[in-house]
Design a protein that fits this description.
mainly alpha, globular, about 120 residues
Length: about 120
């Protein structure tokens, strides 16, 4: 299988959608377990494996501060709180709940954010 790198905003958003759809269907799994990552036998290679996020990978190319500094709003997704890892944001909530139904609901909301950002 040919390995891919994220080169465009559209690449990042489509891979993000794919990963979060898988997470919606597999609510007991974590992002690092997504079978699309090359480390799991998939097709997508990442430079930034600390976040396991196609969006952070894209942002890291020009805006590495997005990853470590939640006061900067450089993400291409429009999170409720302006940053994925602020309390109340969809990712923050997904990452901090064990309830499978809620994790599925939140993962689907992140899929929707990906689609909205494509428009």
């Amino acid at each position: 299988m040919k390995k891919m790198r994220i080169k465009t905003k559209e690449d990042a958003l489509l891979h993000c959608f794919d990963m979060w759809l898988w997470l919606a269907l597999n609510p007991t799994k974590n992002k690092s377990q997504w079978p699309g990552f090359a480390t799991n036998g998939g097709y997508l290679e990442l430079y930034n494996t600390t976040t396991n996020c196609p969006i952070c990978e894209f942002n890291a190319e020009g805006e590495p501060s997005c990853i470590s500094d939640s006061t900067k709003n450089t993400c291409i997704l429009k999170w409720k709180t302006g940053h994925c890892n602020r309390e109340g944001a969809e990712f923050f909530s997904w990452n901090n709940t064990k309830d499978k139904r809620k994790r599925t609901e939140l993962a689907l909301s992140i899929c929707a954010l990906s689609i909205e950002a494509l428009e």
